[in-house]
């Protein structure tokens, strides 16, 4: 029986390059660097996954007491919503409440104010008891949910108040835990440089006028999918995929995340095929030639597992070594079991 090789390892010497580079000084350094490399990659992937960020590539370069990390990622909808809430919280300014009781006033005014406060407190307690005595439990649930929302909102405000600006908050909350975890692996390193490259920024600014006209015409074909949550994220991701090299892992992670969330798997796969066929043309891409996707599992909660294939663009020559192909594998963990995802992206040499 013939065994299928991983196309990334099969073409490392000719078309593609290594993502991790280091210099060996001793014979034992090879095993040490490989173990550290694997652990740092696992750490970075899990860290970005918790922050709802889809990774594109991660390059690691070791040298004499120096370490360099270059990470390309894309922001998902959940991460963008978190940024919007932080921006709203930053604009909040609580008004200073005027003190009702003042020591400089006379005793008569002080007593009147004290009586007013007592009456207000008694009235609030009376109203709260009447709500509790009612048989309608829906009102109680609504009140509890509102209180929980206000408390969560106030906690976020307090975190912003400590850091004062969103930049300080992002640097503290995002980078500090990452640096602390990397210190466990690399104690002897003197200089540590980290370069973060988000792919969402300036995707649509590089488009020409002719491309904008074509984009508006082709988005009309996808009106059926516009109400769904995965539409905006899918369009942004595919533009980044078509304009970047070695983007198979980005597409594989996006498919696995969306299959985990959704129940209508076939509906999503139809959307994916239509969007790739519409945008994989010479007007939008000069890098990618063709894409092949293979998915296997219990799609739509079926009783038996089945596999589904999607071919877009030109045919791929997987056997020829000179062809530039990037490959990625991912698994989606659902309530009905696991679904395997394989992606091949053929690029121009």
Automatic annotation (TrEMBL):
SUPFAM superfamilies: Ribosomal protein S3 C-terminal domain. It comes from the Eukaryota. The keyword Metal-binding does not apply. GO terms for biological process: translation. InterPro entries: Ribosomal_S3_C_sf, Ribosomal_uS3, Ribosomal_uS3_C. Belongs to the universal ribosomal protein uS3 family. PANTHER family: 30S/40S RIBOSOMAL PROTEIN S3, SMALL RIBOSOMAL SUBUNIT PROTEIN US3C. This is Ribosomal protein S3. It comes from Didymosphenia geminata. The gene is rps3.
């Amino acid at each position: 029986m013939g065994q299928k090789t991983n196309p990334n390892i099969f073409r490392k010497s000719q078309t593609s390059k290594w993502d991790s580079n280091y210099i060996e000084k001793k014979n034992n350094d090879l095993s040490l660097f490989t173990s550290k490399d694997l652990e740092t990659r696992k750490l970075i992937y899990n860290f970005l996954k918790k922050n709802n960020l889809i990774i594109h590539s991660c390059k690691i370069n070791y040298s004499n007491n120096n370490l360099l990390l270059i990470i390309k990622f894309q922001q998902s909808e959940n991460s963008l919503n978190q940024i919007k809430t932080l921006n709203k919280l930053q604009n909040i300014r609580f008004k200073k409440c005027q003190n009702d009781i003042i020591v400089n006033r006379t005793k008569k005014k002080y007593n009147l104010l004290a009586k007013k406060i007592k009456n207000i407190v008694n009235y609030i307690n009376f109203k709260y008891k009447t709500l509790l005595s009612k048989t309608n439990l829906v009102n109680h649930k609504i009140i509890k949910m509102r209180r929980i929302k206000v408390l969560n909102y106030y906690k976020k405000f307090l975190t912003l108040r400590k850091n004062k600006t969103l930049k300080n908050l992002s640097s503290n909350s995002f980078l500090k835990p990452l640096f602390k975890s990397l210190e466990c692996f690399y104690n002897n390193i003197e200089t540590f440089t980290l370069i973060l490259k988000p792919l969402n920024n300036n995707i649509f600014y590089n488009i020409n006028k002719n491309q904008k006209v074509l984009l508006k015409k082709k988005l009309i074909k996808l009106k059926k999918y516009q109400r769904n949550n995965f539409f905006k994220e899918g369009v942004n991701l595919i533009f980044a995929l078509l304009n970047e090299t070695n983007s198979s892992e980005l597409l594989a992670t996006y498919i696995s995340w969306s299959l985990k969330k959704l129940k209508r798997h076939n509906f999503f796969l139809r959307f994916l095929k239509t969007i790739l066929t519409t945008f994989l043309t010479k007007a939008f891409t000069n890098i990618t030639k063709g894409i092949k996707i293979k998915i296997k599992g219990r799609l739509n909660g079926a009783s038996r597992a089945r596999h589904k294939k999607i071919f877009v663009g030109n045919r791929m020559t997987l056997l020829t070594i000179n062809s530039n192909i990037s490959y990625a594998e991912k698994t989606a963990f659902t309530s009905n079991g696991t679904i395997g995802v394989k992606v091949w992206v053929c690029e121009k040499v």
